[in-house]
Write a structure and sequence with these properties.
The protein is mostly beta strands. The chain has one helix at 7-16, and strands spanning 21-25, 47-51, 55-64, 74-81, 86-89, 104-112, 115-122. The longest helix has 10 residues, at 7-16. The structure holds zinc ion (ZN).
Amino acid sequence: MLDATGPDAIFRSGLANQEILLPKCADCGRYHFFPRVLCPHCHGEAISWHRASGKGRVHTTTIVRRKPDHGGDYNICMVELDEGVRMMSRVDGITPDDVRIDMAVTAFVGEADGVPAVFFKPAEV
Ligand SMILES: [Zn+2]
């Protein structure tokens, strides 16, 4: 049985409701990710949860080469959200070669191995 009140469980239950929730510290006013019990910036305990804007930019990107019969190449990237936190994910909807550093992306909740997870797509202009 998972700890239903732990920060990781809160994040995952948000995803299950198609919501990306980010922990924010009331003491220093900064967001962090992954979810923690204590703020990693100031060790404050006053963590509250806020729906992410979903807007961000690609910070780093890399292409994982895979044979076509294993699903083909895919992209792994680090996205920096407007809230200042970084998430490891991938950009869907374009070929891996077209993912560029600093490109604007929008988060969405998809599925990885049957579990809700955060992915990104190119931001609409
Ligand atoms: Zn803090």
